Amino acid sequence: MKKISKNITSNLTNSIQLHYVLNSLTMLTAIMVVTMTVLAQGLIAEAQDAEPDVTRDMRALEQKGAYLTGLTHRIKAEDSLMQKILSDAVKDNVNLGQAAGDISDVLRYTLVIKDAEYSRRVPEAMKKLTASGYKVLKFHNAWGGKFYQGINVQLLSPAGVKTELQFHTPKSYAIKQASHGVYEIRRNPESTPEEVADATIKSIAYNKQVMVPSGAKAIAWETI
Question: Any alpha helices (H) in the chain, and if so which ranges?
């Protein structure tokens, strides 16, 4: 009888502990979702305030042989931003606020330039932006890389809002769009090693199709 009573007590204790753990996890998840929502909405509101002036400045870069694309998605969607905040926090081992503060592509633009004019137009565009008060936080030239072809620039607008600008050729942009699915598999922490390996092979194959414009690998810019 004592043994039965002990087993019942033990099972009841374990059940209570499990219930407590599940409730705690549920509450923690809810708090995290609320936190990510608030952070994402704050970043989006900041981007929306800056967007008209930044879009005007980006449009000034357009001319024959160079055009902006993807403008309908120039402000990152809330659900995508929340996902990025969480994934960056896990990847970089930082809290959600720090992860949100490091995100630079809530407001983002893509300038597509003809191959023959690419190496001339990119420095021209950078000079125009810096002369207008933009500061260059990061200038990443990925031409010749395995997984991405193009130049990615992180800017600080005159109003102090982080803005991303990508420089592409028509082909590199088309490949970037076509390979987005395998990119997502590679960066998804829930992907299996086999899925990541397959996505990696496909990503490399995609980017081998892009021709590097003459002089593109040598393009550089000083950052602050």
Answer: 2-59, 78-92, 96-102, 115-131, 170-178, 180-187, 193-207
The DSSP code for 72 is G
Residue 80: alpha-carbon gap to chain centroid: 9
Instruction: Give CA–CA dist 153/195, Å, rounded.
Output: 30
Burial class (CB within 10 angstroms; exposed 0-12, middle 13-18, buried 19+) of 105 = middle
Give me the mean pLDDT over the 109-135 stretch: 97
Q: Which residues pair with 112 in a beta bridge?
A: 67, 168
Residues 91, 95, 100, 101: what is their CA dihedral angle, to the nearest 10 degrees?
-110
The DSSP bridge pattern shows strands 151-156 and 66-69 to be unpaired
User: For residues 107 and 93, what is the distance between their CA atoms, to the nearest angstrom?
Assistant: 24
Q: What's the pTM?
A: 0.82
Q: What is the average per-residue pLDDT within 81-98?
A: 90
For 148, the token pair is 């991405």
Tens digit of pLDDT for each residue in 93-107? 999 999 999 999 999
